[in-house]
Design a protein that fits this description.
By secondary structure, this protein is of the alpha/beta class. The chain is about 40% helix and about 15% strand. It has helices spanning about 15-30, 50-65, 85-100, 110-120, 140-145, 195-205, 220-230, 260-265, 270-280, 290-295, 315-325, 330-335, and strands at about 5, 35-40, 105, 150-155, 160-165, 170-175, 185, 210-215, 235-240, 245, 310. A 3-stranded antiparallel beta sheet has the order 3-4-7. The protein has a two-stranded parallel sheet with strand order 1-2. It has a two-stranded antiparallel ribbon with strand order 5-6. Helix 6 crosses helix 7 (about 220-230). The chain is elongated. The chain starts with a strand and ends with a helix.
Length: about 350
Amino acid sequence: MSIRTRFSPSPTGMIHLGNARAALFSALFAKKNNGTFILRIEDTDAERSEVRYIDALQDDLHWMGVDWQEGPGVGGKFGPYLQSERQDIYAKYYDVLMQQHRIYPCFCSDQELMLARKIQLSRGLPPRYMGTCKKLSAEEIAARIADGKKPAWRFTIPVNTKIEFVDTVKGQQSFNSDDIGDFIVRRADGTAPFLFCNAIDDALMEVSHVLRGEDHIANTPRQLLILQALKLHTPLYGHLSLITGDDGSPLSKRHGSFSLDEMKAHGFLAIAILNYLGRLGHATEVAELLDFNHFAEHFHLEKLSKSPARFDRVQLMYWQKLAVQALTADELWQWLGQ
């Protein structure tokens, strides 16, 4: 099997350590297996996505030593690599799901959905859509559209069905469809949300392995259902344990979490960041400073930790010290004068 991995950030801010580690691991795994690493920009959120962040994230990845073989600035046979330019592709698959009667229009307002969630939570139930609009007749749907209401479209979840997959990091996973609820695959403005376009693009770009944060693990059964309904290729999913602070909570600014851009501005060297992140939640037997290509030789999926990866400033500074010591005289003067 040809190894194809990807990193698919949303350009709504600067890349932080968690995203940078997911990108690094994906690129290392592709390099290790003579595969292809893809950069795909998930910019369907028009209100929050900004061109400056698209440019910045590419600069940050290049700075860290992570290059892509397909994507913006490189091209490839599966483009375009900006999701905002792929809406016609998604529309084709909406038509397929409509013909299969797997999706239906939903006219529920945000306020109605929020109220339903509050009621469910107050009763100790998982918040999920209760299928209110699934019961609408063709006449009721037509009347709402005639009144100027624009529906979102929801995917119909099968009843009482086990959804199982083997996570390449965490092992066997099992979900019950009754705990999920019908979810939106097309917004009222016609655009595709993350769940839908992310799954479609992974399939069409023939991605073999997806490495992403464990906060996405609940999205995987939904995406598997979409791909199975469309009879599309499904990648192998691996969910990386999140980076936490000393208190065990997700890493944030109060723990000293920086964007790559900020860390560069503070004088951190790219190879120090690469060596620190490459060992954060990944056991590596080699103790010396490694560049990207040599690090790839020592990267193994089976050595990714299932436990949270604790941010350790002491270790970060250790790799920074080794990186500074490895500088040539000219590089050192340049670094001191930056």
